[in-house]
Amino acid sequence: MTETVRSAPRATRSRTRGAKTPRPETAAATPPVPPADADTLVGYYRQMLLIRRFEERAARAYTEAKIGGYCHLNLGEEATVVGLMAALRPSDYLFTNYREHGYALAKGIGADRVMAELYGRSTGVSKGWGGSMHLFDAETRLLGGYGIVGGQVPLAAGAALAVSYKGGDEVVMCHMGDGTTAIGAFHESLNIAGLWDLPVVFVVINNGLGMGTTVENSAAEPELYRRGAAYRMESARVDGTDVVAVRDAARLAVERARSESKPYLLETTSPRLKGHSVVDPARYRSKEEKEALKAADPLARMALELEEAGILSHDDRDRLDAEVTAEVDAAAAFADESPAPDVSTLFDYTYATPVPGELRRLPADPVFGS
Amino acid sequence: MATVTYRQALRDTLRAEMLRDENVFLLGEEIGLFEGSYKITEGLLKEFGPRRVRDTPIAEEGFVGAAIGAAMLGLRPVVEIMTINFSLLALDQIVNHAAKIYGMFGGQASVPMVIRTPGGGGQQLGATHSQNVELFYSFIPGLKVVAPSTPAEASAMLKAAIRDDDPVLFLENLALYNTKGELSVPVEDVEPAEIGRAGVTRPGADITIIGYSRMARVAAEVAETLAAEGVSAEVVDLRSLRPLDRATIVESVRKTGCAVVAEDDWLTYGIGAEIAATIQEGAFDWLDAPVRRVAMAEVPLPYAKSLESAALPSAESLLTAARATLRATGRVLETAS
């Protein structure tokens, strides 16, 4: 279910319907099985489960000090991630923020290379230079996780400009958190994308919290998708715990970007099951809130739906779980056994075009000679 | 051999690069219909159309970021930021993104983007429109910063910057746009310069004067005056602020035994501080006098002409500093007064 704002015709009011986060109406009005074939649904479930187990494993590795720096997890966002990626072609580009392990997996990067990046190993997707927040893979066209809130949004508009400049048919998807909609770069980019008819889909992942600040405490218009109206950009909000609903809403946005070269603003709503990052115990959330999160878990919801529809039995589910757990274990073992980047490569990536006079010294080295 | 202004050299070089490479395109505020605030892009919209000469909204962070994203996909955007003061609005995109993308992702994507932007005071534009903040960018590994001082160098350096696979900040100066110089070959035949190389633009034996952009021109003028006084001054034009050609600086000072640095920015932590440190690191035993710096007075630049002129470095202030440095060496020069 989505709510849509069409780009408003000149001098008319936007025809926004409703205001509340839509909840699925499947229980009464429609059959419990979303409109997709059984194999596809099981495939989605498996991907969601892989992300869940991967993130749990990452949290554990963090507490074991195998992973350093910051580590933000996609727990609760699995249906959103899988639904969005299902709407893209392999040739489409993706820009993400720092909460992006799941996106990397769902875009088609092996769990081993993602985990190795988290471990800071040379076999990682970014060769150990990026870490959890900065995954990048040219081959699958994941053009980066970015750590500065909003930083990736202008980049995505620019990538879409390049696609349009070259006359290509790729679409650029750019995901961001709810907090990003307050920052200037978001507004400048939406304006530019609207003005220049760029094939880019902006996706706001609304999990209700920017670190510990609620959307209501940071956004004058907490229905974030409505911000598209300011740029005459079509926009919609979708239940981010429903993988098929997300996929279908994203498909609409992506295909519109592809066929009409028009940007789109999609908002997904999903719970953040844990803290902002691995080290955040989320004390700002009440006990009741934390209890309510369990009911909002998209993975549990989908398991139940698939079981009720006779698509995936409890045993099948256990078997899938064992499979993905083994995959994640293997990824962790691969990461653990991979070498750290050699110090001799420290100066390899400052410049793409080498230049004379570049200072290549370690902290204690003199500037001239030795 | 043709005499052209700095402005004309830039304009003709942009045009030549656009004709040479379809991936080169321009974007910035008022560069199309208005033909550039300083008319560097005159006639280019008419010739190349809005696809390749793209007017942007007033959104430095947005359009610089968009240029970075386009560069990541293989285009070669040349961004005009109306003055370097406005680049501060795009600081996050330049410092946290353009400079980091190649390294942070293990060399998987480069950012072949040029940002052209003029700095400089002396136009009575007041405190927020007269700064020289190239230091901010020169501080950052991953960026390249160039600051040519003559039309010929500007042409050669702009070609190098556009063909380079890294983000390059191309520093211009309001006071240079109308200055003239010779181009020895037609602009399309100008050889790209080498980024990271300084030039000894005037050889000398008694003192080294180091400058860049406008102050390199002023240094040349001062060297001429000193020559009339019997002093042989060597002029080093840095041309590139990052990477910095330390070898050329040190080689010159080892020869002359003393140096003055001329910079258009503020002295404290400025470009000259790095040059002075470089000289003491590489030519300590050769120095006959402390390195002296000529730089802007440490105030927000005032509007009133009397105050503005007093605050800015000039040929006169550089000459004073050069003479004082020569005196401090204790050398007896043949005809020094």
What do these coordinates show?
The complex is a heterodimer of chains A (370) and B (337). With 370 residues, chain A is of the alpha/beta class. Chain A has a single domain, classed as 3-Layer(aba) Sandwich (Rossmann fold). Chain A contains eleven helices and nine strands. Chain A has helices at 26-29, 38-63, 78-86, 101-107, 111-118, 152-166, 184-195, 243-260, 287-295, 298-308, 314-337, and strands at 2-5, 93-96, 142-145, 172-177, 200-206, 209-210, 213-214, 234-239, 264-269. In chain A, strands 1-8-9-5-4-2-3 form a seven-stranded mixed sheet, with helices on both faces. A two-stranded antiparallel ribbon of chain A has the order 6-7. In chain A, α2 packs across α11 (314-337) and α3 (78-86) runs parallel beside α4 (101-107). The longest helix of chain A has 26 residues, at 38-63. The N and C termini of chain A lie far apart (68 Å). Chain B has 337 residues and is α/β, with parallel strands linked by helices. Chain B folds into two domains: 2-189, Thiamin diphosphate (ThDP)-binding fold, Pyr/PP domains (Rossmann fold); 199-328, Rossmann fold (3-Layer(aba) Sandwich), CATH 3.40.50. In chain B, 36% of the residues lie in helices and 20% in strands. Chain B has helices spanning 6-20, 44-48, 60-72, 91-98, 101-104, 134-138, 151-163, 214-228, 246-256, 271-283, 305-311, 315-328, and strands at residues 2-5, 24-28, 53-55, 76-80, 114-119, 144-146, 168-173, 180-183, 199-202, 207-211, 233-237, 240-242, 259-266, 292-296. In chain B, the strands form three sheets. Chain B has a seven-stranded mixed sheet with strand order 3-2-4-5-7-6-12, sandwiched between helices. In chain B, α8 (214-228) links the parallel β10 (207-211) and β11. The two termini of chain B are 39 Å apart. The interface between A and B is large, with 53 and 56 residues. Chain A: It catalyses: N(6)-[(R)-lipoyl]-L-lysyl-[protein] + pyruvate + H(+) = N(6)-[(R)-S(8)-acetyldihydrolipoyl]-L-lysyl-[protein] + CO2. Chain A: Its EC number is 1.2.4.1. Chain A: Residues 47-343 form the Dehydrogenase E1 component domain.
